[in-house]
């Protein structure tokens, strides 16, 4: 059984806090790489992916307002590419682990493959993206490049 490092004032145990001593405002999602932790933030003091490690060292930020307007979800693949859904732009953005933009896909609409406020995402067992197409009241399965597979 794991032993808690400390107790929060409310009495709940916690083991460590990451990102608290820097601008990590409004975290909305988190992803894990081989050695790094990726924290998606939006609004407040930053709209970006903050990168830290388990020693709580700040490794910088990826993305930003040039790529995201209202990011909602983050996926990290086996190569540590970062995939972010953006509810305001109705898009999905892919960056490499250094933050270099690889591709953006998605268009607002209600036809197959189109998105309206995409939010939560996960990978299926074949590496495709399953995404909550929030305002279209559906879930879609798309290739990594955004091609429609299933609704």
UniProtKB/TrEMBL annotation:
GO terms for molecular function: zinc ion binding. Gene3D superfamilies: TolB, C-terminal domain (2.120.10.30). InterPro entries: 6-blade_b-propeller_TolB-like, NHL_repeat, TRIM-NHL_E3_ligases. SUPFAM superfamilies: NHL repeat. Coiled coil: none annotated. The keyword Protease does not apply. Keywords: Repeat. PANTHER family: E3 UBIQUITIN-PROTEIN LIGASE NHLRC1-RELATED (PTHR24104), PROTEIN LIN-41 (PTHR24104:SF25). This is SMP-30/Gluconolactonase/LRE-like region domain-containing protein. It comes from marine metagenome. The lineage of its organism: unclassified sequences, metagenomes, ecological metagenomes.
